[in-house]
Amino acid sequence: MKRMLITLSSAVLAFSLAGTASASTAVKSQSVKVILEDKVVDFGADLVVTKGKTFVEYKALLKQLGYETEFDQSLRTIYAEAEEMELQFSVGGDVAFVNGLTLPSTGEVIEQNGKTLVGLRFAGALTNHDVEWDNKAKSITLSYSGPSAQEKAAVYEVFNKMLLIEAAGDAQGLKDLMAEDTVMDIASVSEGWKTTKTKTKIEKLAIQSYSDTSVVVVLVEDTSKVSGGFFPDNKSQTRYTLHKDKAGSWKIYSIEVLAQQYTNIPGLFEQKATIPETENTSIRKIFDDQIKAANEQNVDAYVATLVDFAEKETLKTTLTDLFKSTTMNITAEKWAIVEYNGSDKAKLLVSTLNEVETGGTKSQNRAIILNDAEKVNGKWLLKAEAVLLSNEQL
């Protein structure tokens, strides 16, 4: 079973996890009935009432709810999967994960008489089930409260349209797919489509949360270049937030990349742009100057290779402190200009071999770096911010 990706930056949802039975009411396990979607389920000895709360052996319960489970003995952790749902929770843990979102779980997963038990109301919260206790009938009813099949289909339709729009390079279609209050920079995406065509495959889609006005969906997307300008193929885990428009249709409010892995690093160096040799040589020289300054721990020479920016003095301080404790030997292994606008902007891709010594400890790594260059007053300089595509420890 594929284990879920845990997003540590997810917000902790605070809500009450009240017991399924009143603490003041003595209830025998055998007298409690569990009703799941109007059907009475007999859990027998797998159902335990303790300290006023009803617990059920995790595997027996989750099987009834349509989940496959796996138990990691070393971590005392349960992994469970059903359609669009991935759960993770641990014995004695304080936090559980549902499609990457975190939920409090203190006291909800216990071990008793050799069994791993999960609180019934807590399990309902994990699996989108409302849980009701009928004290008179001594029954607990679980009713599915997540989006219906029709509601899910309306959400899926957004992403079906998105793939069609990408395939057509339809800038207007992209704009129409965005919510009125979207925080997305639609113009920059449309501009990219003018030069590069991509194809995205959605490998997984999971609805994290659903309400009448907002949906949060996490996708695993595999995107590759079809034609045109420079583009690094990648696989990403992406969170989409959708809002409803006035007509009741779902639209994209925001897109957040949670994790990303570039899938064809060697192939990136084959995406060379056409650039005059004199310009290529000038850009290579400024990068070589930057490497030389870093190796020689020359702060001023390093900063002199950069396009002017507001935080220059802060960078100088950072480099000064770094060079006091660290020595390095950086060598450029591969080099390619992968974008050139014909005049004053370019993008360079470099593979560097880095030997670093800090506090007597030596290490070596290979880094793949994507850096923007800009021609200022007739001289090529590098942007202070670069993108680290890959970092391999050797």
UniProtKB/TrEMBL annotation:
Residues 36-141 form the Copper amine oxidase-like N-terminal domain. It comes from the Bacteria. The keyword Signal applies. Residues 1-23 form the signal peptide. Keywords: Signal. SUPFAM superfamilies: Copper amine oxidase, domain N, NTF2-like. It holds the Pfam family Cu_amine_oxidN1. This is Copper amine oxidase N-terminal domain-containing protein.
